[in-house]
Design brief:
about 240 residues; alpha/beta; 6-stranded mixed β-sheet; about 30% helix
Protein backbone atom coordinates (compact mmCIF):
# COMPACT_ATOMS: atom_id res chain seq x y z
CA UNK A 1 0.00 0.00 0.00
CA UNK A 2 1.43 3.39 -0.97
CA UNK A 3 1.45 6.27 1.54
CA UNK A 4 -0.74 9.33 1.12
CA UNK A 5 0.67 11.83 -1.36
CA UNK A 6 1.73 14.16 1.46
CA UNK A 7 3.90 11.49 3.15
CA UNK A 8 7.42 10.96 1.85
CA UNK A 9 8.29 8.29 4.46
CA UNK A 10 6.05 5.81 6.26
CA UNK A 11 7.04 3.04 8.69
CA UNK A 12 4.36 0.41 9.43
CA UNK A 13 5.12 -2.06 12.24
CA UNK A 14 8.70 -2.22 11.06
CA UNK A 15 11.37 -4.35 12.70
CA UNK A 16 15.02 -4.89 11.88
CA UNK A 17 17.22 -7.63 13.29
CA UNK A 18 20.91 -8.19 12.71
CA UNK A 19 21.55 -11.71 11.36
CA UNK A 20 21.70 -14.05 14.33
CA UNK A 21 21.02 -11.21 16.77
CA UNK A 22 18.16 -9.47 18.51
CA UNK A 23 15.89 -6.78 17.13
CA UNK A 24 17.54 -3.40 16.70
CA UNK A 25 14.16 -1.85 15.83
CA UNK A 26 10.76 -3.28 16.73
CA UNK A 27 7.20 -2.18 16.02
CA UNK A 28 8.25 1.19 14.58
CA UNK A 29 5.35 3.31 13.27
CA UNK A 30 5.62 6.88 12.03
CA UNK A 31 5.34 9.00 8.91
CA UNK A 32 7.11 12.09 7.66
CA UNK A 33 5.36 14.60 5.44
CA UNK A 34 6.90 16.03 2.31
CA UNK A 35 8.85 19.14 3.31
CA UNK A 36 9.28 18.30 7.01
CA UNK A 37 12.51 18.56 9.00
CA UNK A 38 12.75 15.90 11.70
CA UNK A 39 15.29 14.99 14.37
CA UNK A 40 15.88 11.33 15.27
CA UNK A 41 17.20 11.10 18.83
CA UNK A 42 17.97 8.43 21.39
CA UNK A 43 20.77 6.89 23.44
CA UNK A 44 23.59 4.76 22.12
CA UNK A 45 22.27 1.60 20.48
CA UNK A 46 18.70 2.89 20.20
CA UNK A 47 18.63 2.34 16.41
CA UNK A 48 18.99 5.88 15.01
CA UNK A 49 21.58 5.06 12.36
CA UNK A 50 19.77 1.83 11.46
CA UNK A 51 16.61 3.85 10.85
CA UNK A 52 18.41 6.05 8.33
CA UNK A 53 20.17 3.08 6.72
CA UNK A 54 16.80 1.41 6.15
CA UNK A 55 15.45 4.51 4.42
CA UNK A 56 18.56 4.65 2.23
CA UNK A 57 18.07 0.95 1.32
CA UNK A 58 21.49 0.12 2.80
CA UNK A 59 19.71 -2.67 4.68
CA UNK A 60 16.25 -4.25 4.44
CA UNK A 61 13.47 -4.54 7.04
CA UNK A 62 13.13 -7.90 8.78
CA UNK A 63 9.38 -7.40 9.27
CA UNK A 64 6.80 -4.76 8.51
CA UNK A 65 6.66 -2.23 5.74
CA UNK A 66 8.70 0.83 4.80
CA UNK A 67 7.43 3.05 2.01
CA UNK A 68 9.60 5.94 0.83
CA UNK A 69 8.63 8.23 -2.04
CA UNK A 70 5.99 5.71 -3.08
CA UNK A 71 8.44 2.77 -3.12
CA UNK A 72 7.85 -0.25 -0.90
CA UNK A 73 11.45 -0.94 0.08
CA UNK A 74 10.70 -4.49 1.19
CA UNK A 75 9.75 -5.28 -2.41
CA UNK A 76 12.30 -3.04 -4.18
CA UNK A 77 14.51 -5.15 -6.45
CA UNK A 78 18.27 -4.79 -6.02
CA UNK A 79 18.69 -3.56 -9.57
CA UNK A 80 16.36 -0.63 -8.84
CA UNK A 81 18.16 0.55 -5.69
CA UNK A 82 20.69 2.83 -7.48
CA UNK A 83 17.86 4.69 -9.25
CA UNK A 84 15.96 4.97 -5.96
CA UNK A 85 18.99 6.42 -4.17
CA UNK A 86 19.33 9.18 -6.76
CA UNK A 87 16.51 10.96 -4.91
CA UNK A 88 18.29 10.80 -1.54
CA UNK A 89 21.20 12.86 -0.23
CA UNK A 90 23.37 11.21 2.47
CA UNK A 91 25.51 13.15 4.96
CA UNK A 92 27.87 11.36 7.34
CA UNK A 93 29.57 12.27 10.62
CA UNK A 94 33.02 11.38 9.28
CA UNK A 95 32.66 13.33 6.01
CA UNK A 96 33.65 10.37 3.73
CA UNK A 97 35.56 12.63 1.33
CA UNK A 98 38.20 11.60 -1.20
CA UNK A 99 41.28 13.36 0.12
CA UNK A 100 43.29 13.08 -3.10
CA UNK A 101 40.55 14.89 -5.05
CA UNK A 102 39.66 18.57 -5.03
CA UNK A 103 36.56 19.96 -3.37
CA UNK A 104 35.00 20.36 -6.82
CA UNK A 105 35.72 16.72 -7.74
CA UNK A 106 34.27 15.43 -4.46
CA UNK A 107 31.02 17.32 -4.95
CA UNK A 108 30.81 16.45 -8.65
CA UNK A 109 31.29 12.71 -8.11
CA UNK A 110 27.57 11.73 -7.90
CA UNK A 111 26.94 13.58 -11.17
CA UNK A 112 29.92 11.94 -12.88
CA UNK A 113 28.74 8.49 -11.78
CA UNK A 114 25.28 9.20 -13.19
CA UNK A 115 26.64 10.34 -16.54
CA UNK A 116 25.67 14.02 -16.50
CA UNK A 117 27.00 16.19 -19.32
CA UNK A 118 30.21 18.09 -18.58
CA UNK A 119 28.51 21.49 -18.68
CA UNK A 120 25.74 20.33 -16.32
CA UNK A 121 28.31 18.93 -13.89
CA UNK A 122 30.11 22.27 -13.69
CA UNK A 123 26.91 24.26 -13.26
CA UNK A 124 25.34 21.99 -10.64
CA UNK A 125 28.56 21.50 -8.68
CA UNK A 126 29.25 25.22 -8.41
CA UNK A 127 25.64 25.89 -7.45
CA UNK A 128 25.91 23.33 -4.63
CA UNK A 129 29.20 24.80 -3.42
CA UNK A 130 27.70 28.27 -3.51
CA UNK A 131 24.76 27.05 -1.41
CA UNK A 132 27.15 25.98 1.39
CA UNK A 133 29.44 29.02 1.05
CA UNK A 134 32.45 27.22 -0.42
CA UNK A 135 32.49 28.33 -4.04
CA UNK A 136 35.87 29.97 -3.52
CA UNK A 137 37.39 26.67 -2.30
CA UNK A 138 36.50 24.48 -5.27
CA UNK A 139 40.17 23.88 -6.20
CA UNK A 140 41.28 23.13 -2.63
CA UNK A 141 42.04 19.67 -1.28
CA UNK A 142 39.83 18.57 1.65
CA UNK A 143 42.73 18.34 4.12
CA UNK A 144 43.38 22.07 3.70
CA UNK A 145 39.86 22.80 5.04
CA UNK A 146 38.56 22.97 8.59
CA UNK A 147 36.30 20.23 9.93
CA UNK A 148 33.25 22.43 9.43
CA UNK A 149 34.24 23.20 5.86
CA UNK A 150 34.77 19.50 5.14
CA UNK A 151 31.31 18.76 6.47
CA UNK A 152 29.90 21.46 4.21
CA UNK A 153 31.62 19.79 1.26
CA UNK A 154 29.81 16.59 2.26
CA UNK A 155 26.53 18.46 2.38
CA UNK A 156 27.19 20.02 -1.04
CA UNK A 157 27.81 16.52 -2.42
CA UNK A 158 24.52 15.37 -0.88
CA UNK A 159 22.48 18.18 -2.45
CA UNK A 160 24.18 18.36 -5.85
CA UNK A 161 21.63 15.95 -7.35
CA UNK A 162 18.75 18.01 -5.91
CA UNK A 163 17.37 15.19 -3.75
CA UNK A 164 13.85 15.12 -2.38
CA UNK A 165 15.12 13.75 0.94
CA UNK A 166 18.32 14.41 2.93
CA UNK A 167 19.43 11.88 5.57
CA UNK A 168 22.14 13.13 7.93
CA UNK A 169 23.71 10.78 10.48
CA UNK A 170 25.28 12.72 13.39
CA UNK A 171 26.45 15.46 10.99
CA UNK A 172 27.78 17.71 13.77
CA UNK A 173 29.44 15.07 15.95
CA UNK A 174 32.98 16.10 15.00
CA UNK A 175 32.43 19.87 14.95
CA UNK A 176 32.85 22.64 17.50
CA UNK A 177 29.59 24.24 18.76
CA UNK A 178 29.73 27.33 16.54
CA UNK A 179 30.33 25.36 13.35
CA UNK A 180 27.78 22.73 14.37
CA UNK A 181 25.11 25.41 14.65
CA UNK A 182 26.04 26.80 11.22
CA UNK A 183 25.78 23.33 9.67
CA UNK A 184 22.36 22.81 11.24
CA UNK A 185 21.23 26.21 9.97
CA UNK A 186 22.30 25.06 6.52
CA UNK A 187 20.01 22.03 6.77
CA UNK A 188 17.20 24.33 7.87
CA UNK A 189 17.73 26.54 4.80
CA UNK A 190 17.45 23.50 2.53
CA UNK A 191 14.30 22.49 4.36
CA UNK A 192 12.85 25.97 3.89
CA UNK A 193 13.47 25.49 0.16
CA UNK A 194 11.23 22.41 0.22
CA UNK A 195 13.65 19.52 0.88
CA UNK A 196 12.62 16.93 3.47
CA UNK A 197 15.39 16.52 6.07
CA UNK A 198 15.97 13.78 8.67
CA UNK A 199 18.85 14.24 11.10
CA UNK A 200 20.00 11.64 13.61
CA UNK A 201 21.63 13.65 16.38
CA UNK A 202 22.65 13.68 20.03
CA UNK A 203 23.09 17.48 20.07
CA UNK A 204 20.43 18.65 22.52
CA UNK A 205 21.62 22.26 22.36
CA UNK A 206 21.12 22.36 18.59
CA UNK A 207 17.68 20.76 18.83
CA UNK A 208 16.68 23.45 21.30
CA UNK A 209 18.18 26.24 19.18
CA UNK A 210 16.47 25.07 15.96
CA UNK A 211 13.36 23.17 17.11
CA UNK A 212 11.60 20.71 14.81
CA UNK A 213 9.64 17.49 15.33
CA UNK A 214 11.50 14.83 17.31
CA UNK A 215 11.30 11.07 16.80
CA UNK A 216 12.85 9.63 19.97
CA UNK A 217 14.04 6.02 20.08
CA UNK A 218 14.80 3.89 23.11
CA UNK A 219 15.51 0.15 22.96
CA UNK A 220 14.56 0.11 19.29
CA UNK A 221 11.11 1.62 19.77
CA UNK A 222 9.62 5.09 19.46
CA UNK A 223 8.69 6.61 22.80
CA UNK A 224 6.93 9.76 23.99
CA UNK A 225 10.00 10.68 26.02
CA UNK A 226 12.13 13.62 24.97
CA UNK A 227 15.92 13.60 24.77
CA UNK A 228 18.01 14.93 27.62
CA UNK A 229 21.75 15.42 27.87
CA UNK A 230 21.96 12.41 30.18
CA UNK A 231 19.90 10.14 27.92
CA UNK A 232 22.04 11.00 24.90
CA UNK A 233 25.33 10.39 26.71
CA UNK A 234 27.59 8.10 24.76
CA UNK A 235 26.28 8.98 21.31
CA UNK A 236 29.60 10.60 20.44
CA UNK A 237 31.23 7.20 20.67
CA UNK A 238 29.82 5.23 17.77
CA UNK A 239 26.16 5.04 18.62
CA UNK A 240 23.95 3.22 16.19
Amino acid sequence: MSPPASDIVRFDQLAYRYPGGQDVLSGVNFSIAQGEMVYVTGPSGAGKSTLLRLIAALCRPTRGQLVVMGQNLSALKNRHIPAYRQHIGLVFQNFNLLYDRTVFDNVALPLVIRGYAYADIGRRTRAALDAVGLLNREKSLPLTLSGGEQQRVGIARAIVTKPALILADEPTGNLDPEMALEVMRGFQRFNEAGVTVMIATHAIDLIEALPHRIIHLEHGQITDKRPTAASQLGDRHGAR
